Amino acid sequence: MSKTVEIQSPEQFSELLSSSRIVVADFYANWCGPCKQIAPFYEQLSASLSRPKIATFVKVNTEGDKAKDVAQAYAVTTLPTFIVFRDGNVVEKVKSADPNKLKSVVEKLSNEIENAGDPSNSGGSSGGMTWLGAGLPRGYADISDIVDIRGTELLNAATEFSVRTLFKKPKPVSLDKSSSTEEKDWVESDTDEQLMLFIPFNSAIKLHTIQITSLPPKAQEDEDEDDIPMRPSTIKLFTNRPHNLGFDEAEDIQPTQEIEIGEDDWNENGTASIPLRFVRFQNITSLVLFVVDGDGDSETVRLDRLRLIGESGEKREMGKLEKIGDEPGE
């Protein structure tokens, strides 16, 4: 039995966008030959990847009396058009009946879809929602899911730590009193206090705030405080770089923004919520985060979680309809 949802109205579509983390929409028409050709492939994707409240595959008939309003709201002028939404925001568009393009787009989301249904990634009672160490600025959302995890790179991290840890959804183990795991659920630098993190995104974003969580342990009576990792103090951000920077290179290049994190910037969750110069972070496809130094005399720096707050993709209001017409050359 097909798991694909046939959209009947803008209201139904809006409800799905708010109740399902990922929505994949197929905009089609009954008279459209290419739409019919790719329909079986789309149904296969729907059958294999649909997950309740996590990933929903829908079809929107652009000839329908009410469903066509959905197509108008998202300026669909070519059939078929496939649009991928995450948290209600457009993150990908595929125009044409090209199964390879559609498969490539959906494969970017497949790991997220599978992991979202895995209880081990759910963060306890949060139902799979991402833990945040601080509140969200009004009008903005956590867009950390749009990070291309496979493309991330972290330089000067000790070998026993993984960059993927920084974007894990659950609460850090150091804050979870019910956790008995001995897993190293954080990242530490290796030979000195500097870290260089390259973060590519699956689509262009507008970045408003960065939330950094750092939870170094307190020194025990028999420990030297210089052996305890530090929280980051000075951070430089570089945008739209095609690859990671070297440490010497980063020292010589003007950053998009340089940030000093003071002791009072850390809240009770060990999180510093850092607002950015928003006008400089409007069309970002990658971010390099350079931890220059820490807040003490130790030789290492520790990071537990990293959250990115802003806007992803392009979201159109359902009430702002546009006339469907033919696009030149399509």
TrEMBL record:
Residues 1-111 form the Thioredoxin domain. Residues 132-328 form the PITH domain. InterPro entries: Galactose-bd-like_sf, PITH_dom, PITH_dom_sf, Thioredoxin-like_sf, Thioredoxin_CS, Thioredoxin_domain. Coiled coil: none annotated. The keyword ATP-binding does not apply. GO terms for cellular component: cytoplasm. Transmembrane segments: none annotated. PROSITE patterns: PITH, THIOREDOXIN_1, THIOREDOXIN_2. SUPFAM superfamilies: Galactose-binding domain-like, Thioredoxin-like. The keyword Manganese does not apply. Keywords: Disulfide bond. Belongs to the thioredoxin family. This is Thioredoxin-like protein-like protein 1. It comes from Pseudomassariella vexata.
